[in-house]
Amino acid sequence: QSAIEQYQSNIDSASAGLSQQESILDGVNNSLLAVRDDLLEAANGTNTADSLASLGQDIESLTESMVAALNYQDEDGHYVFGGTINDQPPIVAVDDDGDGVTDSYSYQGNSDHRQTTVSNGVEVDTNVAASDFFGSNLDVLNTLNSLSQELQDPNVDPADPQVQSDIQNAVDVVDTASDDLNASIASLGETQNTMSMLSDAQTDISTSNDELIGSLQDLDYGPASITFTGLEVAMEATLKTYSKVSELNLFSVL
C-alpha cells in the first residue's frame, strides 16, 4: 500500500510539472507563429527600410521572449528545459564584443531527460529538453537573431535578393522548429495520458486493499490470505498492462 501511495505522489508531481511545461511550450509555439507572420510580411516585396526595421524589432522581441520562457524555473528553482542539467539557464545570450548586442545564443543543457517511477517497473520522462525541438545549436533562435539585426540595419535594401533569401530561409527554419516543438508538446500529452491511466488503476487497487484490510477482522485467516494473494496477482497484471500501454504511441499501434 505504501508503494502505491508513493507512486501516486510521483504521478501527481510529474503531472503538474508536465502540464506546466505544456503550457509554456504552447506559448513558445505561439511566438514562433507570430514570428512566421512577421517573416511573411517582410517577404511581400512592398516594404521600406523603416518597415523592415520595425519587423526586425518585433522578431527580436519575440525571440527574446522564447528564450525567457525556455529558461523557466520550477518552484524549487530548477531550470526545466535543460535536460538533466537544472542548476543553470539552458539558453544564454552571447555578446562576443561586449557592445550589449546579442551575437548568438548557446545551449548549456543536455539532451537527457529526468525520470520518475510511476508504477512497478514503469518510469516516465518528467521533462523535455530545449534541444529536443530547437537542437543543440539552437538554429532557429540564432537564425532569427541574425535576421532581426539584418532587418534593423539602416542600410538594408528591401529589394536585395540576399535579404529576401535570408527571410525565406528563416521561414523554413521556423517551420521545422514548429513541427519539432509540436512533437514535443504531443509527447508531454501522451505521458500525461499514460500516468492518468496508471493513476486510475492504482486508485482502484488501493481502494480494494483498504476494503480488504477493513474486513480482515471478520474473516478467517485462510480465506483472507487467499483473497489478498488474488488481489496481489490482479494488481501485478494491471500494472504490467499499463506498463505496455506506456510504451505505445500512434506509430507503434498502426
TrEMBL record:
Keywords: Cell projection, Cilium, Flagellum. One of its GO terms (molecular function) is structural molecule activity. GO terms for cellular component: bacterial-type flagellum. The keyword Translocase does not apply. PANTHER family: FLAGELLAR HOOK-ASSOCIATED PROTEIN 3, FLAGELLIN. This is Flagellar hook-associated protein 3. It comes from Escherichia coli. The lineage of its organism: Bacteria, Pseudomonadati, Pseudomonadota, Gammaproteobacteria, Enterobacterales.
